Amino acid sequence: MKVGELILLGGHKFRLLKADEYSNKYMEANYEAFTENDIIKILEKIRLEGSSSPSIDEYSLNLIKSLDKNCDGWISYSDFYDGIRNHGIFLSPQEEYALMRKFDHNHDGKVSLEEFYHALIGK
């Protein structure tokens, strides 16, 4: 079972929106078995979309600028997902969830674009 999956319980359908902390840490530690939790592969998927750009730095900077509409260095989950999709990058709900866990350290519902940028360029 993974985030985003539809489960049937007592004849009712539910979508799994997130996992408990123990399950998250287990999936992150065992990313070989839970490949949609592998941050390196998720970032590679995002970088691949920019392969036609002159450099990964330029691609990453342009991506970040397009995501950060109000130029404050932070972006909400929904704006992040929408912005990524608008760039032709389609992630599974589990991959999106894994990214949020990686870049929202204080769990306030916002992604640090500075950290995201440095992860994209590999620094």
Overview of this protein structure:
With 123 residues, this protein is mainly alpha-helical. It is built from six helices and four strands. The strands form two sheets. A two-stranded antiparallel ribbon has the order 1-2.
Notable characteristics:
mainly alpha; two-stranded antiparallel ribbon; two-stranded antiparallel sheet
CATH class of the domain at 37-121: Mainly Alpha
Q: What's the multimeric state?
A: single chain
Helix content: 40-55%
Instruction: Indicate the CATH architecture of the domain at 37-121.
Output: Orthogonal Bundle
Overall average pLDDT = 85
Write down the Rg.
15 Å
Question: What is the CATH superfamily label of the domain at 37-121?
Answer: EF-hand
Computed structural class: mainly alpha
The major pleated sheet works out as: 2 strands, antiparallel
Strand fraction band? 5-15%
Low-pLDDT residue spans? none
Count of distinct strands: 4
Distance between the termini: 32 Å
